[in-house]
Design brief:
Elements (H helix, E strand, L loop, with lengths): L1 H25 L7 H24 L4 H15 L2 H13 L3 H28 L2
Helix pairs in contact: 1-2, 1-3, 2-3, 2-5, 4-5
Length: 124
């Protein structure tokens, strides 16, 4: 039961953070879904720090991992929004932006995962 409460509380926090951060970034980029890209990259980095922190440095207890990775990051990242926004770009014949959105989210997301692992491995 405690796990469900931690996931629910983390999910609330992650969803609110996604709305605030994604909206703030997006307000400066009306032509491109930069808010979703930013949240996806930041979320990739953070989940990497959390999970590699657990796996390689034992930095978080199982309860903290559930709260942070499943709860907060699970609702913070936005794969469904990414897919929808890419589809809308394609539907509007904005093929360059659609391709850029796919490449940026995948490449920068993987780079963020790598950087998160590097961050954790640097922890003494």
């Amino acid at each position: 039961m405690i796990e469900l409460l931690l996931i629910g509380l983390g999910g609330f926090i992650g969803a609110v953070l996604r709305y605030l951060i994604g909206g703030w970034v997006q307000s400066s980029f009306p032509e491109f879904p930069m808010g979703t890209l930013t949240v996806n990259v930041l979320g990739s980095y953070m989940i990497s720090v959390i999970m590699f922190g657990v796996e390689e440095k034992n930095l978080f207890t199982p309860y903290w991992r559930i709260f942070l990775a499943i709860g907060i990051m699970g609702s913070f990242t936005t794969m469904s929004s990414f897919n929808y926004e890419t589809f809308k770009l394609l539907q509007n014949n904005q093929y360059l932006y659609a391709g850029l959105n796919i490449l940026a989210n995948v490449f920068l997301g993987l780079l963020a995962i790598y950087l998160g692992r590097v961050t954790i491995l640097a922890v003494k």
